[in-house]
């Protein structure tokens, strides 16, 4: 998937939603307008195990060491020049036969270039399709499961430090996903903050040296700790990032 395809094809703007469009891949959920962004999906392809999936950035494996086949983080969807997905016949450098995902991060060039973006959808933009069975139980459109707000803002900029020799690129993105979940009797909020910085040095005509810094931050507010329907709202838990 090229940058042009990633930016122009309507999608929910995360790799798991993108996997749904790949022939031969089955994903366990549908991401509607971004309501599943910030939650990893399970997926399989061509009889392979999800545990055999491999995630890489610029060719460097980053697969979660604690959960086989999972991503260790969430991503800035606009930070990539392209996303490569293989479902079989993988490169010999991939250690397994599972799905392979490689994220090719943007880089600076001799031209100074930057972008800014903003996306927003809220409950005022959504229809209501509450079933009669739930209405009979006293559920209203306000207390039924629905998207309250899904927003994203981000900027990136890149260019030359030394023409033809040294280049920089960086980005910052913030995604804010707020869902009303009846099971939790409140707002389930996920905030994803993503930072990227990249330096490219054309050391010789044949040698390129890259430096890539990446940090993915996830904050979860209103997570239910157990049987939410039987617990007071005060039992819900705000889960900060490990850095806190």
By DSSP (H or I, 4+ residues per run), the number of helices equals 3
Question: What is the CA-based Rg, rounded?
Answer: 20 Å
What's the number of extended β-strand segments? 12
User: Which bin fits the share of residues in helices?
Assistant: under 10%
The description of the largest β-sheet is: 6 strands, antiparallel
What's the overall average pLDDT, rounded?
90
Give the spatial strand order of the biggest sheet: 7-8-9-10-11-12
What class would the helix/strand composition place it in? mainly beta
Characterization of this structure:
By secondary structure, the chain is mainly β. Helix content is 7%, strand content 43%. It contains 3 helices and 12 strands. Strands 7-8-9-10-11-12 form a 6-stranded antiparallel β-sheet, with no helix packed on it. β8 (146-162) and β9 (166-181) form a beta hairpin. The longest helix has 6 residues, at 3-8. The chain is globular and about 70 Å long.
Index terms:
single chain; 244 residues; mainly beta; six-stranded antiparallel sheet; four-stranded mixed sheet; 43% strand
SSE inventory with pairings:
Layout: H1 3-8, H2 15-19, E1 25-27, E2 43-45, E3 54-57, E4 60-61, E5 80-86, E6 100-105, E7 113-122, H3 132-136, E8 146-162, E9 166-181, E10 186-202, E11 208-223, E12 237-239
Parallel strand pairs: 3-6
Antiparallel strand pairs: 1-2, 3-4, 5-6, 7-8, 8-9, 9-10, 10-11, 11-12
């Amino acid at each position: 998937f090229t940058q042009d395809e990633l930016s122009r094809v309507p999608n929910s703007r995360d790799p798991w939603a993108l996997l749904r469009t790949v022939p031969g891949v089955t994903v366990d959920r549908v991401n509607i307008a971004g309501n599943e962004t910030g939650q990893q999906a399970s997926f399989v392809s061509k009889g392979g195990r999800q545990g055999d999936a491999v995630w890489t950035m610029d060719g460097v494996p980053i697969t979660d060491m604690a959960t086989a086949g999972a991503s260790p983080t969430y991503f800035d969807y606009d930070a990539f020049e392209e996303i490569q997905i293989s479902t079989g016949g993988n490169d010999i450098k991939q250690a397994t036969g599972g799905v392979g995902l490689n994220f090719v991060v943007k880089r600076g060039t001799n031209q100074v270039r930057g972008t800014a973006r903003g996306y927003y959808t809220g409950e005022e933009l959504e229809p209501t399709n509450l079933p009669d069975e739930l209405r009979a139980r006293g559920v209203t459109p306000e207390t039924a499961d629905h998207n309250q707000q899904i927003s994203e803002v981000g900027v990136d900029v890149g260019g030359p430090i030394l023409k033809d020799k040294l280049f920089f690129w960086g980005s910052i993105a913030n995604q804010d996903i707020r869902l009303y979940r009846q099971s939790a009797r409140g707002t389930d909020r996920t905030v994803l903050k993503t930072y990227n910085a990249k330096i490219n040095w054309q050391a010789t005509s044949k040698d390129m040296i890259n430096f890539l810094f990446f940090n993915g931050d996830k904050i979860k507010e209103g997570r239910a700790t157990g049987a939410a329907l039987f617990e007071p709202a005060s039992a819900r838990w705000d889960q900060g990032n490990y850095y806190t």
